[in-house]
Design goal:
255 residues; mainly alpha; 10 helices; 80% helix
């Protein structure tokens, strides 16, 4: 019962953040779930929850998009998803926490400082495709499709609504493909259905509330709050993973 409560709480917080920002469901949810769930189940639930949140946002926060601008991200992402899915069964929980924690700790402060970073104004479709590839790999691992593309769009200097349109449509496309791949490859099992039934109601209302708040909130204030919380979540994951890895590496050295 305690695990189900943690899963529901993580889904609710992640649903709100994704509704507000258009991304980050997997990042937020994993900061809760990596403590109590094995990686494959956590990744599957993250993809399911993120996809559900994107469907909610698609109907409640509609943004137009430019196919020429979006296409490189989509093509790269489609190539990256199979790579991420192939990595998923090989993940080790402690290393998984370490990598996720490092990603949070490094990425979130970079986003907070991005207002002072130079803008990449050049038209780099190959670079957009490479970022989409990385996003697809991260999506296959656990629904983190929007992490790197969001940072990249910020560095490109896109306006908030333009960035939201790219990330929202990219995430929705990648998550649909990722969930289909999970189903086709047998990663989703019948034993996971009770967890789906926990995540779905827990995140729906918070996700819708997040989309409503997005319309009126200051972009700077939102980014400071959310990325600050994510940074602390990453630190917590590092604190959890490093002692265990240190002991394991020490034991291997003695053996």
């Amino acid at each position: 019962m305690e695990i189900f409560i943690v899963v529901a709480l993580g889904a609710a917080v992640a649903g709100f953040v994704q509704g507000l920002s258009g991304f980050a469901f997997g990042m937020v949810a994993m900061s809760f779930w990596a403590w109590v769930l094995e990686p494959r189940l956590a990744a599957t639930l993250a993809v399911f929850g993120a996809l559900t949140g994107q469907l909610v946002a698609a109907f409640s926060v509609r943004r137009g998009f430019d196919w020429r601008q979006l296409a490189p991200f989509l093509l790269g992402g489609l190539a990256g998803i199979p790579l991420g899915v192939s990595l998923l069964p090989r993940l080790d929980m402690d290393w998984f926490r370490l990598v996720l924690g490092l990603l949070l700790v490094l990425w979130c402060p970079a986003m907070l400082l991005s207002q002072r970073l130079p803008r990449l104004a050049a038209d780099g479709r190959l670079a957009d495709g490479a970022v989409g590839l990385a996003g697809g790999i991260m999506g296959g691992i656990g629904g983190f499709t929007g992490t790197l593309p969001t940072l990249w769009c910020t560095l490109r200097g896109y306006e908030r609504d333009v960035q939201r349109a790219i990330i929202q449509n990219f995430n929705l496309s990648m998550l649909l493909v990722t969930m289909g791949t999970y189903l086709a490859s047998g990663i989703v099992t019948r034993s996971m259905w009770p967890w789906f039934a926990t995540v779905l109601p827990a995140m729906l209302i918070p996700s819708f509330i997040g989309t409503r708040v997005y319309i009126g909130i200051s972009d700077m204030r939102f980014r400071q709050i959310v990325l600050g919380l994510l940074t602390f979540s990453g630190l917590a994951l590092l604190v959890s993973a490093l002692p265990k890895l240190w002991l394991r590496l020490g034991a291997q050295a003695l053996a």
